[in-house]
Amino acid sequence: MEKLLTLWHGSGLYNLNVGQAAMILVGLVLLYLAIRKKFEPLLLVPIGFGGILANIPEAGLALSALEQAIEVARPAVLQQLATALGTSLDPLAGAEAWRETLKGLVKDGVAPEALRAARDVAVGVGYGDGMLYSFYKVAIASGIAPLVIFMGVGAMTDFGPLLANPRTLFLGAAAQFGIFATLFGAVGLSALGVMDFSLNQAAAIGIIGGADGPTSIYVSSVLAPELLGAIAVAAYAYMALVPLIQPPIMKLLTSKREREITMTQLRPVSKLEKVVFPVAILLLVAFFLPDAAPLLGMFCFGNLMRECGVVERLSDTAQNSLINIVTIFLGLSVGSKLMADSFLAMETLGILGLGIVAFGIGTAAGVLMAKLMNLMSKMPINPLIGAAGVSAVPMAARVANKVGLESNPHNFLLMHAMGPNVAGVIGSAVAAGVMIKYLG
Predict the structure, then answer these.
(1) What DSSP character marks residue 337?
(2) Average of per-residue pLDDT values in the chain
């Protein structure tokens, strides 16, 4: 009977708390949206499954060796950890109070030497880093996974529409206004006492407005890793909801006559232009803003492999097998941050709310920039393609094309919209570099 009780007390069902149950439900909802509704399935399937794994009680899959020891170790081990961290525990308090004290110390930050000593104690008594924690440390904490994915995106990107109509670069730049508007919005909410976001956290939230998942993950891993789970979920959820979010904004800001504007056929772009462009844009941006070099550098490198025509095998690997493998580990790593104690907070609602505001402002800014350019140009631009300046490639361009066809069945805007769409990718990388430069 005693052995059965020991087995029961060590089971996940016995140790399951309300927060973990809620987060497992969130993971199941993400899987439903990905599988049934096809909302960004390539990312939401591993993120949702990772979220479920991270919240299995007693498994500790998303915890470091030290965090696992604090969570489940015996009181004698907790005393050893406290000694290593340079503190003492109240002998009159219970083990749960001790755990909370140690968690607070680790979270608030202690000397690196003390943390290393405490980790050595945890490893010495048999605890090790969880599987998802190891994935996170290698894939995201190092910054590798978002950069490799950006390389794959670059290898799949055609800069031809942008080169054929360079004016659309301004539309991609304008759409990044949502990022900075949301940054100031988050700071304002914190100043008013509605939310409690630091400047770094506000910047990481604002980058959602770029509608670029890898960029959002990269920036949040540098500036606000504690918010990474909520930011990644918001970024990919809103990217999937582009067909629902953008059309009302586009129609509100344009007249039927503007939506019917027919754009002239794009000029042919030479291979030399396509080969030179990624190198030129990298050098131009990186010399002025070196902090944008990692994201933009990998993006341009992937595009150069595509366009140069002499490394087809490398280009094919970057576009397919490599990006697919990294996406699996990236998704599971993001899922590891969907733990109840960090995700179930008012800040998460603030992130989701500010994220959709950022997305809406970015869409509106792109459309309004196109209308402004029409006042100064003899060659009209259909304002709908300005909405594609958010870098949800290629979905935003498809939405612009769809809304245009509703007003004029003979007006095909897809290739025109791809110009600001890929410009938005460059713009979001530059915006990320600015954030990291001043706050990182």
Answers:
(1) T
(2) 90
